[in-house]
Amino acid sequence: MALAWINTEPNTLKTFVANRVTEIQSLTQPHKWLHVPTQDNPADLISRGQSTQDFLESSLWKNGPLWLSQDSDMWPQFPLIKTDVLEKGPIRTTIVSLTLIISNPKKQAEIFVECLIEKYSSLRTLKHVIAYCQHFIKNTDLKNKKQRSLSPLSNEELDAGIIRVGGRIEHANIPQGQKHPIVLPHTHHITTLIIREEHIKRKHAGVQATLYGVRESFWPIDSRNTTRRIIRRSVRCFRVKPRGIDCIMGSLPEKRLTYSCLFLHVGVDYCGPFYIKEKRHRNRGREKVYVSIFVCFTTKAVHLDLVYGLTTEAFLDSLSKFFSRQGKAITVHSDNGTNFVGANKELRDLYEFIQKTKHDPDVKKFLSNERMNWNFNPPSSPHFGGLWEAPVK
Questions:
Q1: Helices (H) and strands (E) in the chain — how many of each?
Q2: Among 32, 201, 260, 384, which is least packed, fewest CB within 10 Å?
Q3: Nearest one of 190, 188, 194, 187 to 215, comparing CA atoms
Q4: Looking at the chain, which runs of residues are DSSP E strands?
Q5: Could you please report the per-residue DSSP string of 248-294?
Q6: Are 387 and 255 in contact (CB under 8 A)?
Q7: Contacts 24+ apart (CB under 8 A), 210-215
Q8: What pLDDT is stored for residue 1 in this prediction?
Q9: Domain ranges of the chain
Q10: What CATH fold (topology level) applies to the domain 257-392?
């Protein structure tokens, strides 16, 4: 079967076999490929099974067949029998007969221009080709050869039969193309070339930036959808903008799903800075302040308080006012801000001091029961704390 493939034209085979036969025929000559009988093929010893003792005593595996050391005239010859190859692909024969008769020269010119436009994929090349065609048509109408030239086309020649956008900015001090852009159909090949060239000129910018550049001289119909469709087909933009990975979200904390009192479990964060001006002092400059945000885990209620700095003392004052108004929280969550870490350290030192000092047993028991737990986000984990980061927006 393999010899039949090698001696067959690749275009009549299926794609998988044809690719390999083409490579074999390009590197070697088909008539040099011969058939090795089964009894002389060492590979069959393994594929068909053999005992270990017979395999070790076999000289065929070590030295090969006996005729291999003789002249090529003594090698076994097997004539190739022509058979139908199963891997042959379907042969399709299509006969197309097309006769186009156009009696209207104007219609014939329009068809020629459409075919010329569809032929090129670069707007710059198409401009040069159309310019040379226009010069050729212009020069053929001139009988005097001295008057023929390849000078640039005039604006009147270029604007012949072009539809432009109207408006009331005729007297504006801007170029004519910006005052009255050329209207482009959204499905035409010229529109695709113009948008593609502007997209490449702007270093593969997005839809909005590309559209701004196009509208400086042209006004495509359904421009946004057309620009989005062309940019989506750009191979380079597709490669540098891969599809994001959809991460599986973790389960919500238990404190978010259980009923509890208001502000019993809270998260805290800062936002700012803001600038305020005090009225107690005349000609006083503006002062920088911040806002501390406390968010309830159960109800998502928000408590705001003004803080006059990022120090630990300022935050402890804000925390005391929060506890006085909303009640004491059992659990507080925050990021690893220095003021939060400092406040936690001071509260922990105060708790340890109270535990070591001799106080009334009832007071000591009350303070021990009311101890507050402070939980910090893991370092370098911006995806933590979304509940109290959202109000900062």
A1: 18, 7
A2: 32
A3: 194
A4: 182-184, 218-220, 265-276, 287-296, 302-307, 331-334, 373-376
A5: PPPPPPHHHHS---TTSEEEEEEEEEEEE--SSSTTPPPEEEEEEEE
A6: no
A7: 215/181
A8: 73
A9: 2-74, 107-154, 176-240, 257-392
A10: Nucleotidyltransferase; domain 5 (3.30.420)
| CA distances to 3, 31, 85 from 13, in Å | 14, 19, 8
Task: Report pLDDT for 369.
Answer: 55
- Single-letter code of the amino acid located at 325: R
Which token pair is 334?
A: 């925050």
What is the C-alpha separation between 219 and 224, in angstroms, rounded? 11
Q: Of 268, 320, 262, 312, whose CA–CA distance to 291 is shortest?
A: 268
- Are 33 and 65 within 8 A, CB to CB? no
DSSP annotation of 311: S
Q: Is 267 exposed, middle or buried (0-12, 13-18, 19+ CB in 10 A)?
A: buried
Encoding tokens for residue 81?
């029998």
189-201 vs 123-140: helix axis angle to the nearest 10?
Answer: 130
Q: Give, in order, the Cα–Cα distances in Å from 65 to each of 56, 69, 70, 87.
A: 16, 8, 10, 31
The token pair that represents 120 in the structure block:
């090129």
**Residues 270, 290: Cα–Cα separation, whole Å:** 7
Q: Is residue 377 within 8 Å of 344, Cβ to Cβ?
A: no
Mean pLDDT by 10 residues, the chain (393 residues): 80 85 87 80 78 78 79 76 60 52 63 79 80 76 65 56 82 86 88 92 92 91 92 88 76 86 90 80 78 92 90 84 89 78 66 49 50 78 82 81
